[in-house]
Design a protein that fits this description.
By secondary structure, this protein is of the alpha/beta class. Helices cover about 50% and strands about 10% of the residues.
Length: about 180
C-alpha cells in the first residue's frame, strides 16, 4: 500500500476488464450513502460513450485505440479538482503515463485484481470488448495482457484488493 493520506476524498477504481470496477463503484456509492456520505459514481467508459454518441467498441473501430486513449486523458483532465467521486476507469486507462499521473492526483487508487480464470469466465461470451478480438485462446490472451498490465496497475495502486470469490459488499468493506 502506498500513501492513502491524499488530500482528495475521491476513490479511483482500476484493473483489467471485467474485474467489477463498475459494479463495485455502484456498491461503494450505495454503502457510502448509507453512511450519509455523498459520492457520485462516474464511469469513464460510459462518459466517453455519451460524449462520442457511440460505444467504446465503435470508437475503437472507427477511430482506433489511440483516439480512445486520448479521450480518456481529456476526460481525466476535466475531472481534475473534482471531489466526492468514485471513478470507475477503463482497463487500459492506466497504461498511458500521463493518465497515471492524473489518476494519482485525483484520489486514492484501488486496484481490483482478478485471476485469469475469473476474468475469462466473465467475458467468455461478451462480444462488445474490442481488445478481446484475437485468434489466441481467451485465457492465453488475457494472461498475456495481464503480464503487461499488472506491474502498471500495482505501481499506481494505493490499495490492491483481490476480487476472486468475493461478493461486492466484501470488496467494498475492504476498500473502506
Amino acid at each position: 500500500m502506498k500513501n492513502c493520506e491524499k488530500a482528495s476524498e475521491n476513490i479511483i477504481l482500476i484493473g483489467y476488464m471485467a474485474v467489477g470496477k463498475s459494479r463495485i463503484g455502484r456498491e461503494l456509492v450505495e454503502v457510502l450513502k448509507e453512511q450519509n456520505r455523498d459520492y457520485e459514481l462516474l464511469d469513464c467508459d460510459s462518459l466517453i460513450e455519451k460524449e462520442a454518441g457511440c460505444t467504446v467498441a465503435e470508437i475503437f473501430e472507427r477511430f482506433g485505440q489511440d483516439e480512445f486513449r486520448k479521450r480518456e486523458t481529456d476526460l481525466l483532465k476535466r475531472l481534475s479538482g473534482r471531489t466526492g467521486i468514485i471513478l470507475s476507469t477503463g482497463g487500459g486507462m492506466p497504461l498511458k503515463e500521463e493518465n497515471r499521473a492524473l489518476l494519482n492526483e485525483l484520489g486514492i487508487v484501488v486496484y481490483l485484481k482478478a485471476e485469469v480464470s475469473t476474468i475469462a469466465d466473465r467475458v467468455r461470451n461478451d462480444k462488445t470488448r474490442p481488445l478481446l478480438k484475437t485468434d489466441k485462446a481467451l485465457e492465453t490472451h488475457i494472461g498475456d495482457m495481464l503480464k503487461e498490465r499488472n506491474p502498471i496497475y500495482e505501481s499506481l495502486a494505493d490499495i490492491t484488493i483481490s476480487v476472486d470469490g468475493k461478493s461486492p459488499r466484501e470488496i467494498v468493506g475492504e476498500i473502506l
